[in-house]
């Protein structure tokens, strides 16, 4: 029996947002979150039309964003819409304000909702971020309504660093959280974040929620972004206590070490939780050629990671996160999805 094609959601307007540079540790560098990333993935998906069905998403209902992110954050992105074309605003002042303080109609106060200087705003930010979130919502909706084993969201800009009321780490809306919040209405959800960087936004959004298990394997935050979160002692809060697992890993590790940690910690915890759905925050910046991440994973390792996730035998939404070696990004993403499909087949799904 042949499996159905894997729907892959993407809207061309996501390419209109072009951050040009960022300030990283005092230096002005070319912005790693380029449109070439999405184009590389799109090319790889379209080259395998027997396996992937690239579809445009439907518009995301405003309520789906409003229930997840603060009103002020949405107002701020709307304010950025009024910037002249080609002009970009970089938050530089980050006041330690009480939540909700600041004027979101004044871009100079954008730092009240932002935690770094690498995540700029311009007139296209909101449109791209909205459609990026729309892809995740439709990938979750298709999984459920078409009873599919696997769907993919080409979310760009990425999302896993965005909290309810803070953007940062190139992320504006938390796309994986959009997918998980959609699915949690129908059963328990596990989110496994394989990006090199800790998924601090996803952790924070579900911190108190026992219906969503959040698991992240990432570069040790003592040395790597986002620095202030991702430690092993962060295990959830209140009713969500025990439903967050952080697995910080050393710099420079190879696939063998990574897969061992994935098996022994992340997947063991997901199996124990026994969710109905899986959301994978698929950051591929652990790749050995990646200019931003600091691991030594190969394309074969990404296939193996997908295969192990697939063996969980769960209906799975894969949401794109980081990965900055644009040239090989599409190949690596296809490796994850092929691996997932193989694993799911082995698990009888
Ligand atoms: Zn990352």
Characterise this structure.
This protein is α/β, with parallel strands linked by helices. The protein has one domain: Arginase, Chain A (3-Layer(aba) Sandwich), CATH 3.40.800.20. The protein is 33% helix and 14% strand. The chain is built from nine helices and ten strands. An eight-stranded parallel sheet has the order 4-1-5-10-9-6-7-8, sandwiched between helices. Strands 2-3 form a two-stranded antiparallel ribbon. Helix 1 packs across helix 9, helix 7 packs parallel to helix 8 and helix 8 runs parallel beside helix 9. The chain is globular, with a radius of gyration of 18 Å. The model has no long low-confidence stretch (mean pLDDT 96). The chain binds zinc ion.
Short description:
The chain has 349 residues and is an alpha/beta fold.
Element-level helix/strand string: EEEHEHHHEHEHEEHEHEH
What's the pLDDT, averaged over the residues?
A: 96
Bound chemical compounds:
zinc ion
Shape: globular
How much helicity do the residues have?
A: 25-40%
Tell me the Rg in angstroms.
18 Å
Q: Count the beta strands.
A: 10
| Structural classification | alpha/beta
CATH class: Alpha Beta
Report the sheet-strand fraction: 5-15%
CATH superfamily: Histone deacetylase domain
If helices are DSSP runs of H or I spanning 4 or more residues, what is the number of helices? Answer: 9
- For the record, give the distance between the C-alpha atoms at the N and C termini, rounded to a whole number: 12 Å
How would you characterize the largest beta sheet?
A: 8 strands, parallel
Strand order of the largest sheet: 4-1-5-10-9-6-7-8
* Domains (count): 1
Give start-end ranges of low-pLDDT stretches: none
